Amino acid sequence: MAKYGRRTANLVSIAPMIVGWFCIIFASNITVLLIARFLQGLAMGMSATLGPVLIGEYTSPNNRGAFLTTISLTIATGVLIVHTLGSYLVWQTAALVIACITFVDFLIVLYSPESPSWLADQGRYEESEKVFRWLRGEGEEEELHRMIETSMVVRESKTDANISQSFSKSLKGQLAYIKTTIKKREFYKPIFIMIHIYTLGQWAGANILAAYTIDIFNNVIGNEANVSLMVITLDAQRIISNSVAVYVIKKVKRRTMLFITVGINLFAFIATAGYTYAKDHNMLPFDHPSIGIALIHIHMFSIATGTVPLPFIIAGEVFPLEYRSLAGGFSVLFLSSNLFITVKTVPYLFRNVGIHGAYLIYAVVVAYCLVISWWFLPETKDRTLQEIEDEFRGRPMSPEELKSTQSLTSLKYMNKDRRCSSPVI
């Protein structure tokens, strides 16, 4: 993503997904299925970083939140499509349909432009301007100008470091560079925040509800529930809630949205734990399946409107351009590892501490991550990526840092029939 571009990396991430689906279509034994799932997991791991970064760089601050929310909306749509196909088609036929959808994704990326931020980072400023204006029109020239100025500063600093210390050839120089980088606030603070946001998103229960739907329905509602109908109903509610979130995220601040939806999530966890505990110990004065159904749907509402879309939104906004690939890739390790831990420990927890005990554990982890977010997560709504980066740095780039590129920038924009303003420091 950093070296070859967002678009190239996106194409590379889709390729193993397509191969994985065709392995499933032609699978004749469990080994081939495992290979297919490994390839698809590889693709998912790459796209988890790529998606938020690319959308964040493509879109205007005013619309960025809504566009990033569509990630969770498409996930919910995909879950519904897969469950529906699996209910009515043979699994090989279902895999073929999904492989075709994935191939359409490949074509969309193939004919999409490269990220203007990456082009600027590579010194391809004219291409960056062209793509930026194609994506957003000509009403955001100030952000474009600041992005190019900052990229010039970063490129100059890298060039000076390479000349003076031979960082590109010296192991000692590389270690010194890494040591300097990890001490920068704009590098470690976003990573620290996203580690907790990704952890919150996974422990909030989205993948648990998706992977252990039958177990949860049986524990909360009972065996008399029509599980197939409940699964489709829950998936439909998830899509509706995601659609609502796309609209609401344009009106409500990120922090406010996070605290409200996670608060509802904690209520759902604690209420479900209390309800199932009382039900198992015959402590309920009154019981009806609708109580359990309502609790599960409240839980899904909190997931679909907040704990699934918000990590992707925040990930698309907080990482600085210079370290976006490295920091994003490192942070998403915690998404994958927490997904693995939560999904794989569900049978053990349900068996040993019951669903009520498991849900209380999830609530504690989510509450801890929410406290960390309260203290460290800045508000990012309607702010440019450069403004967010400056806040993490603790200051905007100083006049001295921009001075070296000021003449280059002025010369670049001189004698061009454009409506962009002169550089502003």
TrEMBL record:
Domain annotation Major facilitator superfamily (MFS) profile: ranges? 1-381
Q: Where are the transmembrane segments?
A: 12-35, 41-58, 65-83, 89-111, 191-214, 226-249, 256-278, 290-314, 326-350, 356-377
What PROSITE patterns would the database entry show?
MFS, SUGAR_TRANSPORT_2
One of this protein's Pfam families, by short name? Sugar_tr
Q: Which GO terms describe its cellular component?
A: membrane
Membrane topology of the entry: Multi-pass membrane protein
The reply to whether Glycoprotein figures as a keyword in the UniProt entry is: yes
Task: State the superkingdom.
Answer: Eukaryota
Q: Where in the cell is it found?
A: Membrane
UniProt keywords, alphabetically? Glycoprotein, Membrane, Transmembrane, Transmembrane helix
User: Which is one GO molecular function term here?
Assistant: transmembrane transporter activity
InterPro entries from the UniProt entry:
MFS_dom, MFS_sugar_transport-like, MFS_trans_sf, MFS_Trehalose_Transporter, Sugar/inositol_transpt, Sugar_transporter_CS
Q: What is this protein called?
A: Major facilitator superfamily (MFS) profile domain-containing protein
